[in-house]
Design brief:
By secondary structure, the protein is α/β, with parallel strands linked by helices. 42% of the residues lie in helices and 14% in strands. The strands form three sheets. The protein has a seven-stranded mixed sheet, sandwiched between helices. A three-stranded antiparallel sheet has the order 9-12-11. A two-stranded parallel sheet has the order 1-10. Helix 4 packs parallel to helix 12, helix 5 runs parallel beside helix 6 and helix 5 crosses helix 11. The relative contact order is 0.17.
Length: 390
């Protein structure tokens, strides 16, 4: 078969680290092993039935078989505004401060292309969601890493950002509850981020993918609740985690109207919005009771408690995450994050994601997804115990 060279832009994209992990897991399963996959970020429970039923009904409507408006249905953007007012007390203009996205990832990757020019700096958390890097690369911008250290409760120390990087920065990514560390932030932290960003003319993008998942009685705040947030940033929200709608590919950006417009302009060239029936289902999710989201968070908290309890019982001194459906655990001495992950897969048929895949400051940790039943979590701990590592 004749082969054509990839563009320079494609060759410069960061490697998809987790593709190699997925390949290892698939091979192990194909060999007949019973693998417990705690390395994924894919919700394991179904979408609430009232949302599914709304989709089924909407899919029968011929109006939804046509192209949707490029910038999404007004009824969905109005539902977003009502949702933010109801859940966070934030006033949003649905017509100028909301952008409908094909999943949260789309907005996260597109925003650097909206705001950064070649050679500009983008501030990214390390460890952090790897697709932030993809957006920076596509914008031909320069990434400056903000270390998330355990001693700082996995929050960046803005005073440690060099002045030259701050002057060149156009964009900063934040993400709380955090993937992969499970750390959370409060309004005071967001206000300190806004003060730093406002001083240097930096736009803040807050990835609120896990906004519904907080533990120990803590409800994670929205970035938009902080003073000056809409003037200086926006928030990306996805229905993937809150309502177990990962495969539906629906999310939205909320915030500064000028950047929302820029995001819409780029998406005008890339997409023709989302299937109308999915937008109706999203309206249903946002407008109906939040009870299912809170129940889901309680399930993750129960799994978290069991996971921490079982691993501590075998001698692994792990720390409980405060939010998200991920835990972030230090690997035993003598291992790197990758060698430990490989050892667990090969010797125990348990998958945990190596921390190095989330950035250089992820070395020495593994990310554990609480996306398996409690019985499977107990079984995973039992298998690890048999390895006599602790």
């Amino acid at each position: 078969m004749k082969k054509f060279e990839k563009s320079v832009r494609l060759t410069e994209l960061p490697d998809q680290f987790f593709a190699s992990l997925a390949k290892k897991v698939t091979k192990r399963v194909s060999e007949g092993h019973d693998v417990i996959n705690l390395g994924q970020g894919n919700p394991d429970l179904p979408t609430p039935i009232h949302i599914v039923e709304r989709l089924q009904k909407a899919a029968e409507n011929p109006l939804n078989h046509k192209y949707s408006p490029f910038r999404g249905m007004d009824y969905l953007k109005e539902a977003v505004a009502r949702f933010y007012h109801r859940e966070y007390g934030v006033e949003i203009d649905p017509h100028s401060e909301v952008s409908v996205l094909l999943g949260g990832k789309a907005g996260l990757v597109e925003l650097p292309q909206c705001l950064a020019n070649p050679g500009d700096v983008v501030l990214v958390p390390d460890p952090g969601y790897p697709d932030y890097w993809s957006g920076v690369s596509l914008a031909d911008a320069i990434m400056h890493k903000m270390p998330l250290l355990e001693e700082n409760d996995f929050k960046p120390d803005f005073s440690q950002i060099p002045e030259d990087a701050a002057k060149k920065a156009k964009l900063m990514f934040l993400n709380y509850p955090n993937n992969p560390t499970g750390g959370i932030a409060d309004e005071a932290f967001f206000e300190s981020a806004i003060q730093f960003a406002d001083k240097h003319g930096i736009f803040i993008v807050h990835d609120f993918a896990y906004g519904s998942i907080g533990f120990d009685g803590i409800r994670p705040p929205s970035f938009l609740q902080a003073k000056g947030s809409i003037e200086n940033g926006l928030e990306i929200y996805t229905l993937s985690k809150t309502f177990n709608m990962a495969g539906w590919r629906i999310g939205f950006a909320v915030g500064n109207s000028s950047v929302i417009e820029s995001l819409n302009v780029l998406q005008d060239h890339l997409h023709v919005s989302v299937f109308g029936a999915v937008q109706e289902a999203a309206e249903e999710a946002l407008s109906s009771s939040y009870k299912s989201a809170l129940e889901l968070s309680n399930i993750y908290e129960s799994r978290r408690n069991l996971l921490v309890q079982e691993l501590r019982s075998i001698g692994w001194n792990v720390q409980a995450p405060k939010g998200s459906f991920f835990a972030w655990f230090k690997v035993p001495e003598g291992f790197t994050s990758s060698t430990f992950s490989d050892h667990l897969l090969e010797q125990a048929n348990v998958v945990m994601a190596p921390g190095i895949g989330f950035g250089e400051y992820g070395e020495g940790y593994v990310r554990v997804g609480m996306l398996a039943t409690e019985d499977r979590i107990r079984e995973a701990a039992l298998r690890i115990k048999k390895l006599n590592l602790f």
